[in-house]
Every structure is written in C-alpha cells, then in structure tokens.
From TrEMBL:
Family, per entry: Belongs to the UDPGP type 2 family.
Catalysed reaction equations from the record: alpha-D-glucose 1-phosphate + UTP + H(+) = UDP-alpha-D-glucose + diphosphate
The protein's name in its UniProt record: UTP--glucose-1-phosphate uridylyltransferase
Listed EC numbers: 2.7.7.9
Top-level taxon in the UniProt lineage: Bacteria
Domain Nucleotidyl transferase residue range list: 13-271
Swiss-Prot/TrEMBL GO biological process terms: UDP-alpha-D-glucose metabolic process
Keywords recorded for this protein, A-Z: Nucleotidyltransferase, Transferase
Job description of the protein: May play a role in stationary phase survival.
Main EC class the enzyme belongs to: transferase
UniProt-listed SUPFAM superfamilies: Nucleotide-diphospho-sugar transferases
Entry-linked Pfam families: NTP_transferase
C-alpha cells in the first residue's frame, strides 16, 4: 500500500467568533450547527475522507465543548442504547472510531500564524500536515477539497493554499495571491497580500481556509514579524516560504461557504437542507 504522506490535520479554533455574538459567548463558533452537525465535524469528516487519522485542535478558553463532542457521552449513550433514537449518534460514533484527537490551548490570540505554530510544534511535529479553518465549510460531489490538495501534494511536495475567485471589492476580507498559472487552476505563487484594499489587490484570487504546510513553516513563522492588526499572519510566512522555496495556489473544485459570517452561514444551511431533502 502507498505510504500516506499526510496523516495529520490541524484545526485552529481559538478565535473569539465575535461576529456571532451573543451565540458565541459560551459556545465555540466551531460548534454552531449546519442542520444537526457542528461546523468542526464537517471539517473532521473532510480530513478523514482525505485519508487522515490524526486530528489536532488548537482551542482557547471557553472551547471545552469541542473536546466533549469528540468523546463518548456515557449517560446519553446509555439512555438511548437500543431505542429508536440510537441512529442519531451513528455519524459521530463513526468519526470518533476512525481517528484520534489531541488539543492544545492558544493562550493569547496572536493570529492564525501563531495558532498554527502553537498547534503544529506541539501536536503535529516534523512532517507535512493539513490545516482546516472549520468556519470555511466546503462541499463537493466526489473528492473533497482536502483530498484534492493531498493528491496535488503528492506531485509538488510543497505548501499549498486553496484559492477561489472572489468579487474584487471583497479582497479586503482575504489573503490574496498573485502567481503564474503552471497548470489549469494551479498557480506558482509570487506574491501574497493579507486583506488588501481592492485597489491594492494583486488579483481576485483569495486564500480560503484549507492549507497543506511543510514543517519548515514553523521556523519561518518564528521569524515573521507581526503584520496586519499586530497579529502573526500565516500569509506573511507563506510569502517568505514562496520566495525561499515554492508555494502553490490551488483553485479547488467545489463550493465554499464562509460560515464565519451570517450570510455564509445561512447560505450553507439552505444548501445542506436542500441537499438532504
Ligand atoms: P477569524 O478571522 O475568522 O476570527 O479567524 P474569529 O475570531 O474566529 O472570528 P471573528 O472575526 O471574531 O468573528 C480565522 C480562523 O483562525 C482561527 C479562528 O479560530 C478561525 O478558525 N484563529 C485566529 C486562531 O485559532 N487563533 C488566532 O489567534 C486567530
């Protein structure tokens, strides 16, 4: 059997989710459900479908519900065992059986780059790994976005970011890339800017919440200066990696919902509701 090059997936989930207050005051944003499943479970299922079995989650204060979700709830299991309601637990049981979970806390919210360094060094170690931002919910008939990226990694063996075209006037919400298209939908990145004003954006190709990173990124993050909003931006570190080595932008197949925003969350809910009908 072919050796798996990427077995571990990191979920930075320490953010406050302020756009969903007050819902996120005592509940992690990643636990908000689209229909019956919390956002982070969709992410974990995507990682499992891409062949991964080790989930590493960066949490923060008030995020314990995530750990409880990926664990057995003895009282509940005991109560509904053998009843007509037991099937409601089938999906989550199967997720828990297929992989392991580990957690670390990001003590201070110093940005996505810092969250990746915190989780990567302690929970992943010296191997390439995937990153999922669970509030970017992706759906695709056939291979999921992460599975598509793993396939690409086997060919290029460098860091990869998922990108999509966004309206030019929305570039200020994203990291935006510039690059040469070396194959259809595959860009060798030459420039990357975090949340640029539309007039300064090098393109309308925005980075979304799926990455494959090589472990040299840790040292690069440590040597990256805080950027926009005084935070360690992963985009700035990836730009250094792109100059020193190579980073690829991949226009993925599928649909992405920005579930960190109310509009995207409602859109995703409608999409999965119509799909389930
Ligand atoms: P966001 O920019 O969406 O921030 O972070 P947020 O706090 O989750 O949400 P708002 O903007 O306050 O509503 C993007 C991703 O990076 C993680 C978040 O959990 C989210 O998945 N993140 C960000 C961290 O884990 N740590 C950080 O310091 C910053």
């Amino acid at each position: 059997m072919k050796e798996k090059l990427i077995r571990k997936c990191l979920f930075p989930a320490a953010g406050y989710g302020t756009r969903f207050l007050p819902a996120t005051k005592a509940t992690p944003k990643e636990m908000l459900p689209i229909l019956t499943k919390p956002l982070i479970q969709y992410g974990v299922e995507e990682a499992i479908a891409a062949g991964m079995d080790t989930m590493a989650i960066v949490t923060g204060r008030g995020k314990r519900a995530i750990e409880d979700h990926f664990d057995i709830s003895y009282e509940l299991e005991h109560q509904i065992k053998g009843t007509s309601k037991e099937h409601y637990l089938t999906e989550i049981r199967s997720v828990i059986e297929k992989c392991t979970f580990s957690y670390t806390r990001q003590i201070e919210m110093k940005g996505l780059g810092h969250a990746i360094l915190t989780g990567g060094e302690t929970l992943i170690g010296n191997e390439p790994f995937a990153v999922i931002l669970a509030d970017d919910l992706c759906d695709h008939e056939g291979n999921g976005v992460l599975a598509q990226m793993v396939e690409l990694y086997e060919k290029y063996k460098c860091s990869i970011v998922a990108i999509e075209e966004v309206p030019k006037d929305e570039t200020y919400k994203y990291g935006v890339i510039e690059g040469k298209e070396i194959e259809e939908g595959i860009f060798m990145i030459s420039n990357m800017v975090e949340k640029p004003d539309p007039k300064d954006a090098p393109s309308n190709l925005a980075i979304i919440g799926r990455y494959i990173l090589t472990p040299d990124i840790y040292e690069i993050i440590k040597n990256t200066k805080p950027g926009k909003n005084g935070e360690l931006q992963i985009t700035d570190s990836l730009m250094i990696q792109a100059k020193e080595n190579m980073v690829i932008g991949y226009k993925f197949k599928g649909k992405r919902f920005d579930c960190g925003s109310i509009d995207g969350f409602v859109e995703a809910t409608n999409h999965f509701y119509n799909k389930a009908k």
